[in-house]
Amino acid sequence: MPFSDRFVELRAPVQHWHWWQIALAVTGLATILGGVGGGGLIWYFSRDLPDLHAIDEHRPNVVSRVYADDRQVIGQFYIERRFLTPLSDIPDTLIQAVISVEDARFFEHPGLDVIGIVRAAWTNFRRGGRVEGASTITQQLARSLFLSPERTYTRKLKELILAYRIENRLTKEQILEMYLNQIYFGHGAYGVRAAAQTFFGKRLDELRLDEAALLAGLPKSPNNYSPFRHPERAKRRRDHVLARMETAAFITAAERQESAERPVTTRRPESREIGPYFIEHVRQQLVGMFGEEAVYTGGLEVYTTLNVEMQRAAEAAMNKGLLQLDKRQGWRGPVRTLTQDELGALIAAPRDPDEEPPEPGEIIEGVVTKLGREHAEILVGSTVGRLAFTDMEWARRVLKGQDPSKDAVTVPSVKGLLKPGDVIEVAIKQVDNDLVHWRLEQTPVVEGALIAIDPRNGATRALVGGYDFLRSEYNRAISARRQPGSAFKPLVYATALKQGLTPATMLLDAPVVYEDEETHKIWKPENYEKRFYGLISLREALIHSRNLATVRLLERIGIKTTTNFTESLGISSPLNKDLSLALGSSSITLEELTAAYGVFANHGYRYKPFTVARVENINEDALYQMLPEPEQVVSKETAYLITNILEDVIQRGTGQRARVIKRERPVAGKTGTTNDFTDAWFVGYTPNLAVGVWVGFDDRRTLGDREAGARAALPIWIDFMRQALKQLPVMPFEIPDDILFVRIDPATGLLPPQEDGHGTVEIFARGTEPKQPAPVRVQPSDFYKLDTYDDSSTRATPFTPSPQDLAAF
Could you tell me which of 539, 533, 555, 544 has the C-alpha nearest to residue 505? Predict the structure, then answer.
């Protein structure tokens, strides 16, 4: 239907103005103006009024929306929460409801309603106060756009003048559309579309008549008529609107009665947004690109890379992992303890039988009211439940200080840990026959971070920057630089492979002491197990994370060569220029390291991580478009060699817990742990997803004895990958054409002795395979010299590996 025809239908069936009505209006207006000084005052107060040419270019503050990769809204940036909506998209019932209660003669008057003014004045005079107003929709629009809300005669006169001018400049349709998009409905909602979402969680075309009437009644006093705060007042106001709609013949008596009988039902918007660290990271980027005004008022449409299901999985995995770690560290005791008077008053207070219990899994404070032989009674709000002592067994380890390694004691029983009045944290374990069973919980103080990146294009699919965004907005996945420990080693080994070394190259794992020539400080690196393993292959050194072999490897390939290569992988944080670099002593971000691993997953091609894919303005014009550009920073062969070794890390090395994922699809990764168990890392990847996890304290204190990457970080990675990979197809790590499978002597890395023929299968980039057989008998001092090979010696014979051979890789 053409809007002009629809517009006619919206008019209330009132008479058009006759000459005597116009004369009455003019007379009334002249009387009003005469009362405040006449035409001279009009000129005086008009001097500083805005030029109405500006109304043609008026752009109200509009919400900028942030979308996930499936186009669902995940965040909004605004000063005023408003979505511009054409009048043609606003339902007739809502327009009629607004007109009925705010300005019944809107389609008839020239901007000010003299009859309404006289009626309101008479009503207020009879009731002895300001009971009824007479502002038209046009006057309200003028006040909202150009004037302050102060109640003075000066402001009222300016409002009348502006309303008259607006009516002469805009059509009724334009005025009504601006008004319905401009007016405030309460709780941060500006305009009808935001109001429908805020109070009902609905689109405009989904509103019922009673819901439209409730919204129409809010602008008069959004706080007093808020259905969230004052549902009874909101219902009375809604019923008043329905009555006015019946009087105006917009609805029938039966429709009014049916709608008035409905209870006021609203739906509060979700208070907890998904991916708050991700959204804040996006906001910071947008402000940098477009400025704060555009972000908060410009109505930008921001399309991001976030995958909602992966993000939910990331947040759940992080919460679970940090809760478990926090419990292993020990119970810190009650949050506080109430006095006897406070406890008595709490127990005697009336209970709300309609109060909803906490959500399952939600950690909430409760008060110990009574102790029994096998359980304690816990009061949470109006909910009384039981905490069995068997459901707080973990609290036998009591933490008396900050260091879990030194300040924890184990008590023989948990029964003595609680007393009446203790405020503790609990969560619902189960509900049996209306009896709530609690379990003892504890909000973690330890922090963690997770980032998931698609290595095929650099898109960030999930991001967690800490345990709780409300507790700390600091994004530990993007901004925090921490020592990665052994998680940095694959970058050193990849440098070596790039330089022509092979997985079979022999390295010496034996004691070594370094002295700084300037400071004369001694550095004596050690292995985690405090043991030494002699000559081992490069593969075995990385699989089992041998520190001494890695330090010697870095010394061999060169620090400068290694730092140059890591920079090409995207590591921009400053790196140490000494041999401690081999053991991950340089602080880098989780995003940097995860993206670097992604290069190995993606055949040696690097994509810069990104979160914003496209930005459009309010007219759907593209302001920004991300076009990922690949850069090959390492050969496919080197990328596959390091990936293959990192697969072995999971199969039989430090990352064996991740074999539950490897049973379902190819996966590679590496743990990382720093001195005194200060930082715990795990970074791993499949061909289509690279994921890094870090766990630690912001103040860099210890996580506790043996809280290494495999124990503190890897379980979080596993829980996330179990869910995230359900969305992704199973893909193999593709073997490049120039990768050779060669049978070698594992003791030397050379071909098996000629009279032997036995050995193990190793992989090589073409041209780096061994070319001479190992001696029949060799001394340990001999095979450390076998680093280079004579081209004239016997070459290896490539062969097609059997399924059993391939299974090892």
Answer: 539
